[in-house]
TrEMBL record:
Compartments in which it is found: Cell membrane
Segments forming domain ABC transporter: 405-631
Gene3D superfamilies cross-referenced by the UniProt entry: ABC transporter type 1, transmembrane domain, P-loop containing nucleotide triphosphate hydrolases
Entry keyword set: ATP-binding, Membrane, Nucleotide-binding, Transmembrane, Transmembrane helix
Region (Disordered): 1-36, 366-403
GO molecular function, one term: ATP binding
Membrane topology label: Multi-pass membrane protein
Signal peptide: none
Biased composition range(s): Low complexity: 388-403
Domain of life, per lineage: Bacteria
Protein name from the UniProt record: ABC transporter ATP-binding protein/permease
């Protein structure tokens, strides 16, 4: 195997290890703080170390060519000083011209060095791009195989990583290597030249240089973090705008205009705050640039009388200014500007390859949009997305499938001073689970549904879907939430039923109609394609339409918040059985004892106290459940 191929295999193995590492972390929760750097810069630096170690040879070769740049810089200032002191000021013009000719001739090897540097640069830059592309491909494959991500959004992200983002990383890295290398060798040449002219010059020039560079380096981690925040805010705002544009009809129909505007304003405020914060740090950076770029020359001017008194010659002074103005200054400026722009982008992009991936929200289907399955809140996030894979069982693997949904010590209150509705609640729903939630009015059942569905954000603890933090997944691809009063829009019954899954086939539609008990509605309306006026449907018929819609989806989590309250017990039982026959987990907020009886498990909510068990166990263990069961059985229907 050639060294090249050997290295490629190493990079591929590295990508593979990374993928497995990420998957492991996803399954087993956060990595302990001492192992996982908290900042993007820290994570990227950790990942960069083995990459650079493996390319020590390429770095040394690059350094070898760059030595010519050191020589050119050194000769540039030194020759000017000698031309003045030994030539023109000493009355010997030929000597002065000879020194200047030497300075000019140093440019020739430097031009050769540039050629050599560019040839060697590829050894450092191309493997990074190749490694990133492999890593992105491996992650996409891993995702596809484990089914932990959803829909087209994920693949779009992978394509962007393989093409656009890996190119940004490659260009940024190449620019950074060039500028850093040039700065190191130019600075070394200039400092060596200053020391050769007079060591006193170093006393004046080095302190502001070190101070400015130190200040600049200190701005790097906060700048990278602010840049990341800004990018995140920008992407979220753009995603919100996209969803709004695609769902104008629903927003108008659901009366969610005010809420949508408020959401957009919140996004705009967040983005503005991120931009202001970024600008503040940019101002600190300008100060740092001024300190190391301008202060050395200013101090040199101020210190000229003292330096001259201590034996500095006129030629050495001009030589020193030549170093500052022609070599050190431009190299420093190029480096700091590049680190500040391409460097920041590089860190952010590389962190996306190494850290958890932001999941784009799946697109809203343009046709037949319009429903309020996400409950009274009616958020934009609740508008439909579609994932053909989301409801499928996990690909066969050695590890158990992750829970469909999980609450880990979740607390929730409607305001900072409000009484908590949920208090450190743990709940796990696995594929195939049927959980009924019962409790008196105001005990928090709808709140639980909203938190589990991602409509409300918990004030403590964590909501997880499919083994990942819920915030990383597109809600509509994971769960369908049916409220008590569903929204049915003007159109046809077919459009309404297909709303969450526009590509559902006719035979699937027919199976749903039969399973949910929609035949009388179809008959009364005159067929699936007859015009439907929502005002002419009874509340029970509206609920049946929404239940049919949910039956057709492939979302692995179904949450029914008293979604069958307008049906008679027989119709309710039929719809619940049909929904229980889907793949995935179902949580039903029970309206009658029948729902609890049919469920395998029941969660009894009594304020922030909860008890979970089978219906038979709870009759024994929970006085509240006995009481509810007794009351319900006396008032059937
Ligand atoms: N948007 C809100 N703002 C403030 N408090 C709220 C809000 N929604 C619900 N609450 C309060 O939170 C508590 C739990 O309400 P929730 O609607 O979750 O209970 P529930 O068990 O579903 O009641 P019901 O059976 O009557 O629907 C109640 O005290 C309620 O007043």
């Amino acid at each position: 195997m050639t060294a090249e191929a050997d290295r490629d295999v190493g990079v591929a193995a590295e990508a593979d290890r990374h993928v497995r590492g990420t998957a492991e972390a996803d399954r087993e929760g956060p990595v302990p703080a001492e192992r996982e750097p908290r900042t993007a810069l820290g994570r990227v630096t950790r990942e960069a170390r083995p990459f650079l170690r493996a390319r020590t040879g390429a770095i040394v070769r690059l350094g070898g060519w760059s030595l010519l740049e050191f020589a050119q810089t050194f000769v540039g200032g030194f020759a000017v000083a000698r031309a003045l002191d030994d030539g023109f000021l000493a009355g010997s013009t030929p000597t002065g011209l000879a020194w200047l000719a030497l300075a000019a001739s140093a440019a020739l090897p430097a031009a050769l060095a540039t050629r050599g540097v560019f040839a060697r640069l590829a050894d450092l830059v191309e493997p990074l791009r190749d490694g990133l592309v492999r890593r992105a491909s491996a992650r996409a494959l891993h995702t596809a195989l484990t089914g932990t991500r959803t829909g087209g959004g994920a693949s779009t992200g992978s394509v962007s990583q393989v093409t656009h983002q890996s190119e940004i990383a490659r260009d940024g890295w190449a620019g950074l290597v060039l500028a850093l290398r040039s700065f190191v060798f130019t600075a070394a040449g200039a400092l060596a030249g200053l020391a050769a002219l007079s060591p006193l010059l170093l006393l004046v020039v080095v302190p502001p240089l070190v101070l400015g560079i130190g200040l600049f380096l200190a701005t790097l981690p906060p700048m990278a973090a602010r840049q990341r925040d800004y990018l995140g805010a920008d992407e979220d705002f753009a995603a919100h705008a996209g969803r709004t544009a695609a769902a104008l009809r629903d927003i108008a129909a659901a009366g969610a205009a005010d809420r949508t505007v408020a959401e957009a304003e919140a996004h705009a405020r967040r983005q503005a705050a991120a931009a202001r914060s970024l600008a503040r740090w940019a101002a600190v950076r300008i100060v740092a640039l001024a300190v190391c770029g301008r202060l050395p020359a200013l101090l040199l001017l101020l210190a000229t009388p003292w330096l001259m008194r201590n034996g500095l010659t006129g030629g050495a002074l001009v030589g020193a200014f030549t170093y500052l103005g022609h070599s050190l200054g431009p190299a420093l400026h190029a480096l700091l500007t590049l680190v500040g722009t391409a460097g920041g982008r590089l860190v952010v992009v590389l962190d996306r390859f190494t850290g958890p991936v932001r999941l784009p929200v799946p697109p809203v289907p343009a046709a037949a949009a319009g429903a309020r399955e996400d409950g009274p809140a009616g958020t934009l996030d609740g508008l439909p997305g579609r994932s053909p894979k989301a409801g499928r069982p996990q690909a066969p693997g050695r590890r158990p499938a992750p829970a469909t949904a999980e609450l880990r010590s979740v607390s929730f209150a409607y305001g900072p001073a409000a009484r908590p509705v949920l208090d450190r609640l743990d709940l796990t729903l696995r594929p195939g689970d049927r959980l009924a939630v019962v409790g008196p009015s105001g005990s928090g059942k709808s709140t639980l549904a909203a938190v589990l569905a991602g409509v409300e954000t918990p004030t403590g603890g964590e909501v997880r879907w499919l083994g990942r933090p819920a915030r990383e997944l597109a809600p509509t691809a994971v769960r369908t939430l049916l409220p008590q009063t569903p929204y049915v829009f003007s159109g046809t019954l077919r459009e309404n039923l297909r709303y969450l899954r526009p590509e559902a086939r006719d035979r699937e539609l027919a199976a749903t109609v039969a399973a949910i008990g929609l035949d009388p509605v179809v008959e009364r309306l005159g067929g699936l394609d007859a015009p439907l006026d929502p005002r002419r449907l009874s509340p029970g018929e509206r609920q049946l339409v929404a239940l049919g819609r949910a039956h057709l989806t492939t979302a692995p989590l179904l949450i029914l918040d008293e979604a069958t309250s307008e049906l008679d017990p027989a119709a309710e039982a039929r719809a619940e059985r049909a929904l229980a026959g889907r793949a995935g987990a179902v949580l039903i907020i029970a309206h009658r004892i029948g729902s609890a009886d049919r469920a395998a498990r029941v969660l009894v909510m009594d304020g922030t106290r909860t008890v979970e068990g089978t219906p038979a166990e709870l009759l024994d263990r929970s006085a509240l459940f006995r009481d509810l069961a007794g009351r319900w059985s006396r008032t059937p229907g």
